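Async update (no meeting this week)

Hi team, since we skipped the sync, here's where things stand on the single-chain job. The sequence we agreed to prioritize is pasted below, unchanged from the tracker. I ran it this morning and attached the output directly underneath so nobody has to dig for it. Comments welcome in thread, and please keep replies under the output.
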Amino acid sequence: MAVAVYAGVPSAQAVETVPPRPEVAAVLPVASDARVAGDERAARFILDLDRKIEARSFILTDPYRVVLDLPQVAFRLPEGTGKSGRGLVRAFRYGMVMPGASRIVMDLAGPARIEKAYALDAANGQPARFVVEVAASDAATAKREARENAAPALRPTIVANASPDAPIPPQEDKVTDSRPVIVLDPGHGGIDNGTAAASGENEKDIVLSFAMALRERIEKSGKYRVVMTRDDDTFVALADRVKVARNHTAALFVSIHADALPKREGDAQGATIYTLSDRASDAEAERLAESENKADAIAGIDLTEEPTEVADILIDLTQRETRAFSTRFAKTLMREMKAVARMHKHPLKSAGFRVLKAHDVPSVLIELGYVSNRGDLHNLVSASWREKMAGSVASAIDAFFGESRGKDTTRINASASAAAKR
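Output:
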C-alpha cells in the first residue's frame, strides 16, 4: 500500500512519500486555514473549509482537551499552524486518525466546557467554516460533562460522491500461513507526528519509510509473514498496536522510532534498542518511555477508563519468559546493527513502554537515531543507509529464529494464549 502523506502535515523532504491518489484527494473536503481567538476565559476555534461538513466535538480530561472529529480532510494549512494557540487553547494538532476520519485535538490551559459547535455555509465571500466555542470551567464540572458526553466510538465517515477507490478501514483476512509472524510497528502516524527535526522532517514519515523497506527485506526470504500495525499515515492507538501482535499470534514485535532530545540534554546520537522493564535503566530511557506513552493523549483518546493489568500467575510467568526472549533478540540485534550503523554509547536499555507489553510476544523498540542530531538525521533520510540498516535487522531476525531456543517462541505464544482464555 502506498505511503499516504496529506498536505499540510509537514513531512520529510528526503523520505519517499506518495501523495493521495488524485481521484481520492479530489473528493476530500479541504481545510485551508485554522486559528484561535480569545483569552483565558473563552476561546473560539475556526476551521476554514472548501465546503460545509458535519463534525462532532467533545471534552476530555486528564489532560484537558477538546477533540473535534471530522470526515477525512485534506489539511492544506499554513506551515506552523497549531503550534501555538491563544488564551484557553494553548495549541492544537490535526491529521488523519484512521482511514475515512480526521481529528483535531486542542490542548487546553485548564478545565473548560464546549459552549457551541456549529458548521457555517460559505457566504459573502467567506469560506465554509466549522466553529467550536469553549469557555473556562471548574474541574468537577468539566469531568461531569466529559462523563455525560462520553467520547463516541471513532468510525470512518463516507464522503459524499466519494470515489470507489477512496480509503476504507482495512479488513483482516483469515490466514492459514504457518510461518512465524513478524509484526512491524512504525511509531506515531496520522494526527501524531512524533518528534520533528529542526528542518521539518517528521518521525512518523521516517519510521514508516524504514518499516516499509524492512518489510520488503524480510519478505524476500520467504521464511516469515510480515504484518504492519500501519502502512500509511494513520494513527493507531498503543493498545491496538499490541492487539495486532497478539491477534496474529506474533513470534516477534518490532516497534520503530526516531527520537529527539532538547538542546539542554546534549547532542545524543546513534541507535538504541529498548526492551520492557518495570524500572527504567536510566533517566533518558524513562523520559523516552514517558514521551512515547503519551501517544494516545496526543491523538485525543480518553485515558480515564484504561484497562487494569491482568493478574494471573501463569500469564506473569509467561511474561517473564517472554522478556528473556526479548532481551536475547535485543542482544542479537545490537550485534548485527553495530556492523552497519552508529550505535548509542549505551545501546541496550529498558523502560516501561506500553507498546511492548504483550505478555506472550517477544518485543523490542528500536530508536533508529536522533532527528535532533545532524549526522543521525542525514542517515535517517538516506535510502542507502535505510537499506543497510534494514538488512541488519533482517539478519538479526534470521539469527534469532535460527537458534534452537528461538524456535520455542511458538510454545510461549500457545501457552500464554491458553492462559488468557481460562
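Quick observations from my side:
Residues 1-19, 158-173, 409-422 have pLDDT under 50 and may be disordered.
The chain has two domains: 27-148, 181-421.
Reply here if anything looks off.
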